[in-house]
Write a structure and sequence with these properties.
Layout (H helix, E strand, L loop, with lengths): L3 E5 L2 E4 H23 L4 H27 L4 H5 L2 H5 L5 H18 L12 H18 L13 E3 L2 E3 L2 H23 L2 H19 L10 E2 L2 E2 H25 L1
Antiparallel strand pairs: 1-2, 3-4, 5-6
Helix pairs in contact: 1-2, 1-6, 2-5, 6-7, 7-8, 8-9
C-alpha cells in the first residue's frame, strides 16, 4: 500500500484524493464527448457535474456515518476534518447523486431521463480509477486468501478486491462504449450499467474483508443496493421492450 505517492516541495501528495480527482476529470471528459454527440449543452453538463460532485461527496460521507460508525456519527458529523478527509462509501455517493440527477434531468427542459445513460461510461471509468486510489490507501480491503497474487495488509494475505473491481469496471466501460457504438441508445447504456455493476458488486462483496458496513438478513448493505440496481435495470429493459413493441 502507498497512501502517499510522492512529495512535492516536501508536501505529501496522497494517492486517494489524487486518483479520485483524476477519476472525476476523466469521467467528465468521457461524458462530455457523448453529451456533445447528442447535441446537448456543455454548459448544462458543467453545472450538473459540479452539483452532482457535491451531492456525491455528501452522500458518500453520510452513508459512511450511518453504516460504518453509527455510534460515533454525531461526533464525526460535527468535525470539519471528517467532511474534508477520508471515509467514503461509493453507494452513498451514487444514491445521493442519482436522486439529484433524476430531479435535475426532470426539471431541465433540454434533458430527458433517458439521457442519464450518457453518464454511465464516464462513471465506470472514473470509478475504476478511484478504486486504484482505494488500493493504494488500503481501504475496502479483501478477505484472507492464499492466492499467489494476494496482497499483504494488516498482517494477512488478502484478496486485492480493489484491483478486481477496477479491472472489471474498465471492462464495463469498454462494453458500454461498444453498446453506444452499435446502438446509439442512452437508455441501453443506463440499463447495461445498472445490471453489470450490480452483478459485479454483489459478487465482490463475498470477497470483501471490511464488514463494518453491516449485514442484514445475510446480505451486506452493498448487496441489497446491488440487488435493487439489478432489479431496476431488468425492469427498465422490459419496459423499454414493451414501449418499443407497442
Amino acid at each position: 500500500m502507498k497512501p502517499i505517492l510522492f512529495h512535492f516541495f516536501h508536501e505529501p501528495i496522497y494517492s486517494y484524493p489524487l486518483l479520485m480527482g483524476l477519476g472525476w476529470g476523466m469521467g467528465y471528459n468521457v461524458t462530455l464527448s457523448l453529451w456533445e454527440k447528442c447535441g446537448l449543452s456543455s454548459k448544462i453538463l458543467k453545472i450538473y457535474f459540479f452539483i452532482s460532485f457535491i451531492m456525491a461527496w455528501v452522500g458518500a460521507k453520510i452513508f459512511f456515518l450511518i453504516f460504518s460508525m453509527p455510534e460515533k456519527a454525531t461526533d464525526y458529523s460535527l468535525e470539519v476534518n471528517f467532511w474534508l478527509g477520508g471515509g467514503f462509501v461509493f453507494y452513498g455517493g451514487l444514491v445521493f447523486a442519482g436522486l439529484f440527477s433524476l430531479a435535475f434531468f426532470k426539471i431541465n427542459r433540454q434533458l430527458k431521463i433517458k439521457h442519464l445513460g450518457l453518464i454511465t461510461p464516464g462513471l465506470a471509468l472514473g470509478h475504476a480509477i478511484g478504486r486504484l486510489g482505494c488500493f493504494l490507501a488500503g481501504c475496502c480491503f479483501g478477505k484472507q486468501c492464499d492466492l499467489p497474487f494476494a496482497v499483504f495488509y494488516k498482517g494477512l494475505n488478502r484478496h486485492p478486491v480493489q484491483l478486481y473491481e477496477a479491472i472489471c469496471l474498465i471492462l464495463i466501460f469498454l462494453m458500454l462504449k461498444e453498446v453506444w457504438k452499435r446502438k446509439q441508445s442512452a437508455t441501453l447504456l443506463g440499463i447495461f450499467y445498472l445490471v453489470s455493476y450490480g452483478v459485479l458488486r454483489y459478487g465482490l462483496e463475498f470477497l470483501r474483508g471490511d464488514l463494518i458496513r453491516g449485514i442484514y438478513f445475510g446480505q451486506s448493505t452493498s448487496q441489497w443496493i446491488s440487488l435493487f440496481m439489478i432489479a431496476l435495470g431488468v425492469t427498465s429493459w422490459f419496459l423499454s421492450r414493451v414501449k418499443y413493441e407497442a
